[in-house]
Write a structure and sequence with these properties.
mainly alpha; 74% helix
C-alpha cells in the first residue's frame, strides 16, 4: 500500500523560512516597482490615452488598457497586475512568518499598490494629472515599505560576503605572528 499523506518538512536545513522568502519577494517587488515607475513616466510623458478608453469603471479601464491601449500602456497595466499578485504573495508569506512588523509593512505595501492601481484606472478614465501623481506617490509608499521590509528581515549581524571577506583579510594581516 502507498502512503498518500503529504510529507512536510519543517525548518529543514538549507530550506528558507517564510521571513526569508518574504525578504526575497520584497527585493523582487522593489525591482519590479522601479521598472513600473519608469514605464509610468514613459506613459505619462509620451503616450496619449485614446479618447475611446476614457469613461467606465476601474475594471473597464484595466481591460481597455490591456487590450486596446498603446503598447507602453498595455505593458504598464500588465506589469501592474503582476505586481499586485506579488504583493498578495508577500502578505501571505508575512502572515505565515508570524512577524508582526512584517505583516504590517506588507499590508501597507498591498494597500499602496491597490491605491496606485486605482489611481491608474482613474488616469485611464479621465486623463487627470492628479491621478498620475497619485500613482507615483502610492508607488513611493510601496517602495519605502519594501525597503523597510528588507531591513527588518535581514539576518542580525549579517554582512555581505565581500565585506566579511575583506574584514577577515584585514584581521589576518593585523594579527601578530606567533
Amino acid at each position: 500500500m502507498v502512503d498518500a499523506r503529504p510529507t512536510q518538512v519543517r525548518n529543514a536545513p538549507g530550506r528558507p523560512d517564510h521571513a526569508e522568502i518574504a525578504r526575497r519577494t520584497s527585493l523582487g517587488m522593489t525591482m519590479a516597482l522601479l521598472v513600473q515607475f519608469a514605464l509610468g513616466m514613459v506613459v505619462n510623458l509620451y503616450v496619449t490615452v485614446p479618447a475611446r478608453d476614457q469613461g467606465g469603471g476601474t475594471l473597464t479601464a484595466i481591460g481597455r488598457a490591456l487590450s486596446g491601449g498603446p503598447a507602453a500602456l498595455a505593458i504598464h497595466a500588465g506589469l501592474g497586475l503582476l505586481i499586485l499578485l506579488g504583493t498578495i504573495s508577500l502578505v501571505v508569506r508575512s502572515v505565515l512568518s508570524r512577524r508582526r512588523a512584517l505583516i504590517w509593512l506588507s499590508a501597507v505595501t498591498l494597500l499602496a499598490v491597490l491605491g496606485a492601481a486605482s489611481s491608474g484606472a482613474s488616469f485611464v478614465n479621465s486623463g487627470n494629472d492628479g491621478a498620475s501623481l497619485g500613482m507615483a506617490l502610492a508607488t513611493g509608499v510601496a517602495l519605502a515599505c519594501l525597503a523597510v521590509i528588507l531591513f527588518v528581515t535581514a539576518a542580525p549581524g549579517a554582512a555581505p560576503p565581500a565585506a566579511s571577506g575583506a574584514a577577515e583579510q584585514r584581521s589576518t594581516r593585523a594579527a601578530p605572528p606567533g
